[in-house]
Structure formats: structure tokens, C-alpha cells
Design brief:
Order of helices and strands of chain B: EHHEHEHEEEEHH
CATH architecture of the largest domain in chain A: 2-Layer Sandwich
Radius of gyration of chain B: 16 Å
Number of helices of chain A: 14
Distance between the termini of chain B: 23 Å
Number of helices of chain B: 6
Strand content of chain A: 15-25%
Number of strands of chain B: 7
CATH class of chain B: Alpha Beta
Oligomer: heterodimer
Structural class of chain A: alpha/beta
Strand order of the largest sheet of chain A: 13-12-18-17-14-15-16
Bound molecules: iron/sulfur cluster
CATH topology of the largest domain in chain A: Aconitase, domain 3
Number of strands of chain A: 18
Strand content of chain B: 15-25%
Amino acid sequence: MPGMTMTEKILAKHAGKSHVAPEDNVWVNVDVLMTHDVCGPGTIGIFYEKFGKDAKVWDPDRVVIIPDHYIFTADLKCHRNVQTLRDFVKQQGLKYYYDPEFVKNEPGMPSPYLDPTKTSYKGVCHKALPEEGHIRPGEILLGTDSHTCTAGAFGQFATGVGNTDAAFTLGTGKTWLKVPPTMKFTFHGQIPPYLTAKDLILAVIGEIGVDGATYRAMYFAGDGIKSLTLEDRMTLTNMAIEAGGKNGVCDVDEKTLEYVRARSRRKEWEVFTDDKDATYFSEHEWDLQTMEPMVAKPHSPDNKDTARNCRNVRLDRAYIGSCTGGKITDMIFAANLLKGLKVKIPTFVVPGSTEVHRDMKELNLRGVKKDSNEKSIEEVLADAGCLLGPSGCGACLGGPVDTFGRLQSTEVCISTTNRNFPGRMGSTKSAVYLASPLTVAASALTGYVTDPREYVTQPIETGMAGVR
Amino acid sequence: MDSVITGRAYVLGDNIDTDQIIPAQYLSFNPSLPEERKFFGMYALSSVPEGQRGLRKPAASDDTGGNIPFVRENEFKSDFTIIIGGKNFGSGSSREHAPLALAEAGVKCVIAEFYARIFFRNSVNGGYLIPFESEERLVGRINTGDELEVLMDQQALINKTDGNRYKLKPLGDVLPIIEAGGVFPYAKKAGMLK
Ligand code: SF4
């Protein structure tokens, strides 16, 4: 028998088989199913339609519901959708639900939480899942959201599915999957201070294209990946879908285990590694020392260029947020660059989760608890002139017209998010450049796409931010 | 499943992502409520940029090529029931609202060079439409508005407007799920569900 990759081993175990190979179709047991306010109501509808009105989910402790997309909007249908989730949670006795209690079925924009530590609401599901202890190595996570692949950073198989698939899993705990072949991306060297994982993944997608990993697993390997924080690894696996990938994975190391030990709601998990003789669909290598800050130009994540080459591009606004670029380390990167300076264009900041928002209030520029005469991340950003919104998906996907930071017209925006498809952030006339939080912050200062090397002179420490 | 599918073509380009197929602002409609579900038909393909909506061959290009609305204003159904796409059709967001929106508008099948994974899976498992793959690129060869016929058993596409015939790829593994009408009826047939 030839060796297996991590992805193949996880799928084999969950299918009750000793061996699987790419292209095999297998039925697997699912460990966790996640849904949110946009796809939850449709999933719930199909679940009751197909399994009957008295149906019960296969395991109430393995279904996680995280409203995050359309929270801060006056659109009453969105409030109603949150209520649909609440009713389902109650009917099914689900344990893990993160309610935006301030969304009441009332007209008008819900007033956001006042204190991020005093709400059951979390924000973006892919950030909240690990924070709340639902992610462990070796498991299978399905989510009704394409960026569910983010959790692969923890050495698990995680992928996005539609409502019908999710409804099927809700009732049975199972799904069918075709085993994907693995593409291996090795990064050599240590991450330099002017790069973040965003630059790495934009380089990868730029090279292989938005369909370059279709139906495949993307494995991010090498000492370069080891040198990244877990949050930055999540940026890599998060955008696997932007190359068409089915899932993305990183190896489990001490950083992973430290995080999972501190947070996981279950104490058992299994760590899988690629066999030495595992077969790869293809192998790609990069040297971190020769890589440059990257952007994806409109209107596709694979439309790559260096930030340097785009320095003549004039911008109307900047956006820092989402499951890709709204983590606490992203905020620390941006704040270090912006400290003591003023942004030249409207710069919208949306924390990825209420925990990120809490940390923005409590941590200093080095990612450790600030003392009373130090400025918080949030204060540094506000002093620089950034506009701060409440945690959630925000304008990453455009959303309802009254969404904070949404592009409404012909704006040119530079953003830490993951997609710059036509109309993705709200208006089909707008244009979006994707970049790292460092590049977005540097560009906010000049009003032009700007290489962060003009500002970053020394390594930015993020301490234990985002870990505990 | 019908063995022959007929309809008029609506031609799109490469990388038609699910945000273009159904923009995020309409995702607040709940597809499980019939009175809201029909709106997905109304807004299907409404975020495809100008110039790329309903392509026509360069030779046939006239004022309407690239600016043909998929669904006329204030209507819920399209005149076009077969979509011709290029590479990587249905990329991006996993929203099942995308194949659902096309099906609500009346689409019976999409014929593209290849698909993004989740769109393909949602189309099949939800039983919304048949995602065929063509042997060769059809964008630029078929005009929006052409009368098409898909012969399932021969895996062939016939353009009745110009008489051309094209080969489609076999549906392979997913054929039994498509024939059953989705993953639920398929699993029932296979004895996995009561
Ligand atoms: S932040 Fe953006 S990409 Fe992430 S889940 Fe929300 S809408 Fe999707």
C-alpha cells in the first residue's frame, strides 16, 4: 500500500477504512457541523422537510450555530432569520449557539453590544469555532460556508457544503466525500517582518490560479509555516477555497497543541502526519526571503502583482476585517504600522470576533496585556483615524445595503478580506485590491497602494495574542 | 429525469462566481418559504457585470451582446433555460442559493468546461439542475438565444439554430444521484435512509 497524506488518513479513519486513495468515494462520519444565519434557515427547512417535522439532529452536542453575517442591519428578514436559528436551537436542545441577544425582532438597526466580554454573540464563525473549542486535530468539520476550510490550520479536514448536504448530515451525522489528491506547498525560511501569511497565499493563488486546486487538498508545509502564528496559518487555509481547494491543511505542532489544549471542549483528538512515501498531485516551493508583499488586483484573487508595482493605484478607502484579515494579530500588524500617524482615506476596521474586539481593548502593540498608561490596539487605530465597527462579517461580502463599510458605488478599496469578485463588497462598479494587513495599513496612510517595507523596519511581536 | 432537455441558451464567460449568480444582499430571503423562494429566480445572475451578461459570438455581435438581461425586470422566470459557461463555473461562496436561484428562474442544466467543487456538489445533491461538462469550449461558439437540445443518452448537445453538435463528458460517479433527483432520494434508494 502506498503512503497516505494527512487528508487521506483523516478520511480513511472516518470511513472506517485502513486505506483510501484519491478519487475514492467514501461515506464518512462527521465530527462537527457548523451553520450560520445565512445558510442556517434554508438548512433547517430542508432538514424538517426531509426527516419530518418531529425530526431530531443526530447529536445535539456536535451541531454549532454561529450567527455572523447579517447582524447589524435593519433588514427585518435578517432579524427573522436569527429568530429561526433560536427556535431551532430550542427545539433541538443544542448546546453550542452564540446568540446576538441585541437582535430583537424590532424595526431598525440593532444597537451593537456595548462590551464585547458581556455578549453571547461571537462574530465570524471561522474565528469563533476554534476560540470556542470546537476545533481539534484529526476531526472532520463541515460548515455551510466555503471558508470552513480555515480550520484545516489545526490539522483537521474541514470543508464547506451547501444546505442540502448540511441537512443530510444534521439528520444522519454522515456525508459522502470524494477523496481529494493533495498539492504540497513548501515554504522555506522564517517569515520576514514585512510579510504575513496573506502575501504567501496570494502568491500561491496567483501562481496556480483560482481553479488551480479545484477538487484538491492544499498542504502548507516547511519551516516557513512553522514560523507562522496559528492565526496566520488560518489565513493560509482560509483562502484555500480561493484556489478552488476542497480543503487546506497545516501540520500540527506545539503551537497547535497549546491552543487546542487550552480551548477544546473535548479532550481527545488524533494527530495525523503525511507518510514519507505519500503521493502528491504536485509540489511547489517558495523561499520566504525572496518573496515580496503582494496584492490581488480587481476582480479576481489570482490577479497577482506586487504591492510595489501598484504604487500608482489611487484608493478611496481601506478595509481591515473578516475571517481572513480581522484576527487580533492582523489588528496588531495594522496598529503597529499606523501608530502615531493618520490615515489619508476612510479606513474601516471590523474585528473578526468579539474576542478579537476584547483583545483590541486589552492588549498593547506587542500583543500583551497593556498597563494603565499604555494605549490599546483599539485606541491606536482610533487615534490614526480608523472607523471602528462591531464584530461580524461586515462588508466582506457586501451584505444588506446598510452594512458598515459596504461599497456603494465606484470606490476603489484595498482590503484584508479574501474575495475581490465583481460586486463582492457591495457594488459591481467598485474595485477591490486584496492585501495583507500591513499593506492595507501602509496604503491607508498614503491613499495609494503602498509596499509596507516603507514603514516596517523591525519585527512586529504579537506575543500570545489570539492564543489565550 | 428527462432524456432530452431543450431550451434557449444563455452564454456566460469564465469564473462565474456565486456572488454574481445571486448577490449577497438577497440572501436574507429564506429559500424554505415558498413566498420568498421565488425571489431567487428574480435576482438570478443579477450581479454579472455589464458587457458579460448573455454573450454572443464576435461575428454576431450587435448592441445587445453582453447586455442581455437573464430575467426581465419584475419577472421571476427567465426565457433561457440552458446556461453555457466557461471555466470554473460557480466558484467562491458555498451558498446553495446559487443553483437554487438558477433553478427557480427555470434553468434545467448548465454546460460548462468545468465547475468549482461546491457548486457542482450543491447542484447534484440538491437536485436543482444538471451540471454537464463539455468536451470543448462552447463560449464564443454558441449565441445567447440559440435553441439547444441535450440528448442525455448520447451525451450530446445539439445547437438547433446552426446545426452544430458537441460532445458532453460522462456524468460519472454522480449520475446515480442525479438520476435519483438528489442525495436524499438517492440515500433512500440505497437503503441508507428510512
Ligand atoms: S468574513 Fe467574509 S469570508 Fe469570512 S465568513 Fe464572513 S462573509 Fe464569509
